[in-house]
Structure formats: structure tokens, C-alpha cells
Amino acid sequence: MCRRVFVTGATSGIGKEIAISFAQYGDNLLLCARREEKLAELKAELEADYDVRVDTFTLDVRNREEVETKVPQAIKAFGGVDILVNNAGLAQGLDDFQDSSIDDAVTMIDTNVKGLIYVARKVLPFMMEQNSGHIINMGSTAGIYAYAKGAVYCATKAAVKTLSDGIRIDTIATDIKVTTIQPGIVETPFSEVRFHGDAQRAASVYAGIDAIQPEDVADIVLYVSNQPKRVQISDVTIMANQQATGFMVHKK
Ligand SMILES: NC(=O)c1ccc[n+]([C@@H]2O[C@H](COP(=O)([O-])OP(=O)(O)OC[C@H]3O[C@@H](n4cnc5c(N)ncnc54)[C@H](OP(=O)(O)O)[C@@H]3O)[C@@H](O)[C@H]2O)c1
């Protein structure tokens, strides 16, 4: 059966591959992010390649008013929602906490924590109304294992895990499922964003390691979404083969 899947942060990396894999599976998609032209490109690609409906809208998840207005409007126009993939997120900076930028910290908290709350809070009433749905939140191994120079990013991803657990408790009497996906090192533009556009420094993160690819994470998200009604996968942790904790990797 064709499902209605809402993915945030669908213009790049993991979110984009998640959108592609749901489209391949035959699900309709509601996609958002800030970059309009990237959303338009992806919509055209998915509609040309797969027989699915793709609605898109620009959204900055940090903007509470924008989320509160646009998300319900978009869901109503789309005809409802069965799966929310709360994927939009980022890291900014890699510095000892005592030297780190407060602006970077605020951006990460506003995006990864507050943005996720704003979106989930606006999507849940639709799921409560139908007594079903699946919220899939993008955490990270960084939320399990703090690593050097990443205190605030790690804290935001620990918050994602705890928020998922809390929402699962509060919706226990419904058929709504909540899952946290916790990937390790995934090769995407994530590091370029973290290093404020320094492509060379970003490339060094993935040098010498066979990093997880975004399509690997997308496969797992699809698997998680395809379980019988009685099965709720609460958490999935995915590491690269040569990765042991959040930032402990062996490089060749
Ligand atoms: N790559 C990794 O190693 C890794 C590991 C574990 C977890 N994660 C998590 O996976 C998620 C996706 O990251 P990625 O690796 O795929 O990075 P990415 O390629 O940089 O993608 C990030 C996505 O989030 C969107 N986004 C960022 N800020 C936003 C905002 N304020 N409002 C709306 N959308 C926003 C971006 O779209 P626009 O710029 O168009 O808005 C983009 O589509 C993040 O939550 C990240 O923390 C990544």
C-alpha cells in the first residue's frame, strides 16, 4: 500500500537518499528543506523515475512560526501523513568547548533539537487523529558517545534519542511508532557544512575509511518502516566497519 511519507532535510545526503528509497518502494513523498532549487530538482527526478506523488515546500525548521503555519498546510494539501522522517540537522564547528562558537551552538540546538520538536509537535496531531503513524528521528552515534570537540553536537543528538523515548512513552496507548536511527560516520556534505564550506578539511574526515554511504542508512530506514504493526524498532545504531564509537575510527 502506498504510504504518505514526510521527510525533512531532503535536499542532500541521508535525507535525499531516504526520499529516493521510499519513492523506489512506491510511496508518495512530502519533502522540505531550505533550498528550493534542490527540492525542485529532486521532485522532477523522482516523478520522472517513479510513479509517485512528490509535494515539496521550503522550510527552515528553526523558524517556529514558519513550521507551525507551513507544516499543517502542506500535510493537509498532501492528504495526510503516515511516516515522518525528522532528518534535517547539522553540525557546526569542531572545537574544544572552551574555544567554541556560541553562534554555532545556538544553530545546532535550534536546528537539531528545537526544529525537530516544532515539526514533530505539528505532525503528531494528524497521527493521533488516525491512531497510527511512524516518527523516525535521525540521531547519531554522537548521541551515545560524546567525542572530543563535539560537545554541543553530541548533546543535541543525545536529546534526539531522549525525545524519541519520551514521545514513545506518551503515545504508548496508540498505534504510533517512534524510532531513533543512530548512524556513525556517513559520507555526505555534513562535514563540509560542519567546517563552514572547507571542502579539503571535510574530505580528510572520510579519507582512509570506508564510510557508511547515505543509501545504506536509507535502506535501514525503509526496513524499519516495513515491520508489521505489532513490531516497533525503537533504536538502530549503524557503524562503519572500521568504527568503534562515535568518533573512534581506524584509518588505513
Ligand atoms: N553524515 C554523518 O556522518 C551523520 C551521522 C549521524 C547522523 N547524521 C545526521 O543525519 C542528518 C542528515 O545529515 P547529512 O549527513 O545527510 O548532512 P547534509 O548532507 O548536510 O544534509 C542535511 C540536510 O538538512 C537540511 N537542513 C539543515 N538545516 C536545516 C534547516 N534549518 N531547516 C531545514 N532543513 C535543514 C539540509 O537542507 P537545506 O540546506 O536545503 O536546508 C539538508 O537537506 C542530520 O540530522 C545529521 O546530524 C549525519
Question: Can you describe this structure?
Answer:
41% of the residues are buried. The protein has 252 residues and is of the alpha/beta class. It is 46% helix and 16% strand. The chain has a single domain, classed as NAD(P)-binding Rossmann-like Domain (Rossmann fold), CATH 3.40.50. It is globular. Helix 1 (13-25) crosses helix 8 (214-225), helix 3 runs parallel beside helix 4 and helix 4 runs parallel beside helix 5 (151-170). It binds NADP nicotinamide-adenine-dinucleotide phosphate.
Notable characteristics:
single chain, 252 residues, alpha/beta, Rossmann fold, binds NADP nicotinamide-adenine-dinucleotide phosphate, SDR family NAD(P)-dependent oxidoreductase, NAD(P)-bd_dom_sf, SDR_fam, Sc_DH/Rdtase_CS
Short description:
Keywords: Oxidoreductase. This protein has about 250 residues and is an alpha/beta fold.
**What's the CATH H-level homologous superfamily?**
NAD(P)-binding Rossmann-like Domain
Structural class: alpha/beta
Overall 3D form: globular
Mean pLDDT: 97
| Number of structural units classed as domains | 1
| Cα distance spanning the termini | 45 Å
- Sheet having the most strands: 7 strands, parallel
CA-atom Rg in angstroms: 17 Å
How much β-strand is present in the residues?
15-25%
Strand arrangement across the biggest beta sheet = 3-2-1-4-5-6-7
What sequence of helices (H) and strands (E) makes up the elements? EHEHEHEHEHEHHHE
What is the CATH class? Alpha Beta
Unreliable stretches? none
What small molecules does this complex bind?
NADP nicotinamide-adenine-dinucleotide phosphate
Which architecture does the CATH hierarchy give at level 2?
3-Layer(aba) Sandwich
Overall number of strands: 7
Measured as a percent range, the helix fraction is 40-55%
